[in-house]
Design goal:
With 444 residues, this protein is an alpha/beta fold. It has 12 helices and 22 strands. The chain folds into 3 domains: 201 residues, FAD/NAD(P)-binding domain (3-Layer(bba) Sandwich); 110 residues, 3-Layer(bba) Sandwich (FAD/NAD(P)-binding domain), CATH 3.50.50; 105 residues, FAD/NAD-linked reductase, C-terminal dimerisation domain (Enolase-like, domain 1, 2-Layer Sandwich), CATH 3.30.390.30.
Length: 444
């Protein structure tokens, strides 16, 4: 009756994972993508962002090397070289993603897909039918409706700028804004960050937020809290940023990183009556099923937990459920995550505020110290480590860390929390010395 058993709209990480897993179980699968195979993570998010983070961190390493006897007299940075090598690698990755799909037996349709009915979709001149349809269309940066907004860029644009701005204003206080502010600061740009609220990184542990703010300010980023952009205008040789406080900032580039919105418009969902929330996200149940029984959705277009590994896991769980008689569900507790500021942040589990609200009686263990590496470099960067523990069960509810390699450390902590580790078990674990991570098992 149908051309395919599963039709996936969107070839980002989640869509590709679901398509390949479904095909491995014998399903007839097609995937539709209007841009590059690999989606936001590969082309406009995680991967190119991490390349920029690596590049900017070399400035710190070169400076710190003097404390260890290195005398590097001359060095320079080329933005164009970075963009060029980054682009070549992303092209290679797209080729790998495309090959993985084709080798799995997935048919690729390149173009904009629009649902005609709950079982048919039109892409270019083709009309495709499928018994099941998966929406994996991701998200897209939001921009404010202010005068002069056409002069600004968003987080999608930042990876292919023709030149590195000497002065940049970053608008926003979430993790994307903070990461990109740190990147350009590390690369030598003069960075001003505007955030309308009272503290950056809303939704994270309060002490993590404050420590991150302090470290970013120490590094040279001019963070102005309680301020926003009122309008933008062009002046000879620069942009003029008019703030809500009445001030003016001159800049070469203005970057808005104020949030992302589910990419669900203009694909036929409203016409079909698919239930969306006020932000445009697809409402789904625990089976990823939308209000129409054979239409499913995963990843950022559901606006639940917008992380690449979560979308991949959701896609695989759906494929197992639909095509392998192996119903699987996603456990959204204890998902490790990282913020690639400098120093970076690693988090898993509940914040202190969340734990107090949910469990009431908790204990908090903290350490704040200068890492061994910087006793010779002179850099004032501090490491902050925090454990949140349920008094009744002694179970560790949350781990939070700011410092080099926090993202690597928190991955292992995620396993511990998922296994239900207690503070006593942390204490019984031998430390690796000398490391910053040893504080996690030596806090009494």
């Amino acid at each position: 009756m149908f051309d395919y058993d599963l039709l996936v709209l969107g070839a980002g990480s989640g869509g590709v994972a679901c398509a390949r897993r479904a095909a491995s179980h014998g399903a007839r699968v097609a995937i539709v993508e209007e841009a590059e195979i690999g989606g936001t993570c590969v082309h406009r998010g995680c991967i190119p962002k991490k390349f920029l983070v690596y590049a900017s961190h070399f400035a710190h390493d070169l400076c710190d090397s003097k404390g260890y006897g290195w005398n590097i007299k001359e060095y320079s940075f080329s933005w164009s070289d970075l963009v060029s090598t980054k682009s070549l690698e992303l092209q290679r990755l797209e080729g790998i993603y495309r090959s993985l799909l084709l080798d799995s037996g997935v048919k690729i349709f390149q173009g904009h897909g629009h649902l005609q009915t709950n079982t048919t979709l039109k892409v270019n001149s083709d009309t495709i039918s499928a018994e099941n349809i998966l929406l994996a269309t991701g998200g897209w940066p939001t921009m404010p409706n202010i005068d002069g907004i056409h002069l600004a860029i968003n987080s999608n644009d930042v990876f292919d700028l023709p030149s590195k701005p000497d002065r940049i204003v970053v608008v926003g206080g979430g993790y994307i804004a903070c990461e990109l502010a740190a990147v350009f600061n590390g690369l030598g740009s003069e960075v001003t960050q505007l955030y309308r609220s009272e503290m950056i990184l809303r939704g994270f542990d309060d002490e993590i937020r404050k420590n991150a703010y302090q470290e970013m300010v120490k590094s040279g980023i001019d963070i102005r809290l309680g301020q926003n952009v009122a309008s933008l205008s062009e002046t000879p040789g620069s942009l003029s940023v008019n703030t809500t406080s009445g001030g003016k900032i001159s800049a070469d580039q203005v970057l808005f990183a104020i949030g992302r919105k589910p990419n669900t418009s203009n694909i036929g969902l409203l016409e079909l009556g698919v239930s969306l929330n006020d932000n445009g996200a697809v409402n789904v149940n625990e089976d990823f099923r939308s209000s129409i029984s054979n239409i499913y959705a995963i990843g950022d277009c559901t606006d639940r937990l917008n992380l690449t590994p979560v979308a991949i896991h959701e896609g695989r769980c759906l494929a197992e459920t639909l095509f392998n008689s192996n119903p699987q569900f996603v456990d959204y507790r204890n998902v490790p995550t990282a913020i690639f500021t400098q120093p970076e942040i690693g988090i898993v589990g509940l914040s202190e505020e969340q734990a107090r609200k949910e469990f009431g009686n908790i204990k908090v263990f903290k350490a704040h110290f200068r890492p061994l590496k910087h006793t010779l470099t002179g850099r004032e960067t501090k490491v902050f480590v925090k454990l949140v523990v349920d008094v009744k069960t002694d179970r560790v509810l949350g781990c939070h860390m700011i410092g080099d390699s926090s993202s690597e450390i928190v991955q292992a902590l995620g396993v511990a929390l998922q296994a239900g580790a207690t503070k006593a078990q942390f204490d019984q674990t031998m430390a690796v010395h000398p490391t910053s991570a040893e504080e996690l098992v030596t806090m009494y």
